[in-house]
Amino acid sequence: MTDDLSADAWLPFSVPRAGVDATVIDRDAAGVAWSRLIRRLGEAGDVITHDPGAVNDADLVSGLRHVLVLLAVALDGALYADDTPVLRVATTSTDDVMSWGMECADALYTRAALKAGESYRLWGNRGTAQYVGLQTMDGATSTSNALVDELEVAADGSFEVVLSSDKRDGNWMQITGDQPNLVVRHFFYDWETEVPSTLFIERIDGTGSAPAPTNPVAATPARIAAIGDFVLGNLNFFLAFGQAAAPNTFMAPFDQTSMGGAAENRPVIGRWQLAEDEALVLEVVPPVGVYWSLSVGNPWWETIHYGRHQSSLNAHQAVLDEDGVFRAVISAHDPGIANWIDNAGHSNGPMILRCVRTETAPTPEVRVVKLDQLADVLPPGTARVTPEQRSAVLAVRRAAVAARFPR
User: Fold this and answer.
1) Can you give the pLDDT at residue 261?
2) For the chain, what are the domain ranges?
3) Which are the contacts of 104, defined by CB distance < 8 A and separation ≥ 6?
């Protein structure tokens, strides 16, 4: 083990992948690995407490909490690691609590770890989510993408698809590389009524049953070291990534398939920065296509909790003005605007307009104004809500998120 962070240390799969061939536990190596883990956690804490993005108490407290979130994500990867493939579709390491990398507020992400050189059959029912996308990856690099709605699907929503390296008849997706895996994305528009797919996966045309694990000990020295590397690496990666956009601007959309993004998703990523008495007014003509949404995060690239706060809006939830423009107000205090995006008292963070299979990926126009000047810059017909209506909306969001991620 070296003391340098590897290029892929920020990715969760780097933890279970580490030390898979270890069969003998060296006590000295274990001690070195444990010391490295503790040191990395200390370095991550120093990053939080010294980062200029931690402007106020909300920023700082959420940053320290984020280190614990990343630790929990890494522990999950280490403790459930095995050298046999996990042939099930299970929730990924993001939900409304385990938040990192600005996961989509409308999403349920599911996955299955695959084994190089094998072929698989994925089958089940599509469900009713607005968007269900399948993606195969080698590590973090995308190898193929498919919308379920573009496959052969029966009238009742049932379908099956073969995952293999060689071309097959019918529904087929390619898997390649040494670290193949499957990711399924569900994006919901109507959180109350839309339901996710029900999927199953099995190995076909392979060697039969999975071999017994040769390394049943999850906490190898290499994995212990990788836990700390992931926490620090992931934290540093997104802090650096977030600085690409100047405050209160958006970057042009770009291809994210090399870092785990789906090919059909063209995110328009920006950064907001506001004082407590300021608001950011965002205007955009919504794109036409399968799915779009706007969401905001805190300085550490955690999506602000979308069950407790209206920190996101999608095409089903948003209210368009009479001219067909989507106007949203980002601020810490509720201005009584229907399209309010709550930054939960943070001072800065990312903002993302997600565009999935849309004709365009437009760049929103933004301007910063004082909260008491909103009436001067918004159209007279801007949709407004009462405190009681806002409470009702938040109650619906809370219940829907709890149902999406039951514990």
Assistant:
1) 67
2) 1-83+213-243, 246-404
3) 185, 187, 293, 295, 303, 354
User: Tens digit of pLDDT for each residue in 288-328?
Assistant: 999 999 999 999 999 999 999 999 999 999 999 999 999 99
**Whole-angstrom Cα distance, residue 240 to residue 52?**
12
Residue 153 near residue 203, CB atoms below 8 Å: no
Give the Cα separation of 305 and 301 in Å (integer). 12
**Backbone φ, ψ for residue 252 (5° rounding):** -70, 150
Give the pairing of strands 158-164 and 172-174.
Answer: parallel
The answer to whether the beta carbons of residues 354 and 315 sit under 8 Å apart is: no
The pLDDT of 12-26, averaged and rounded, is 68
pTM of the predicted protein model: 0.91
State the architecture of 246-404 in CATH terms. Answer: Sandwich (2.60)
Rg, C-alpha atoms of the chain: 22
DSSP 176-206: -SSSEEEEEEEE-SSTTT----EEEEEEESS
Task: With beta carbons less than 8 A apart as the criterion, state whether 286 and 355 touch.
Answer: no
Range of lowest pLDDT (12-21, 133-142, 236-245): 12-21
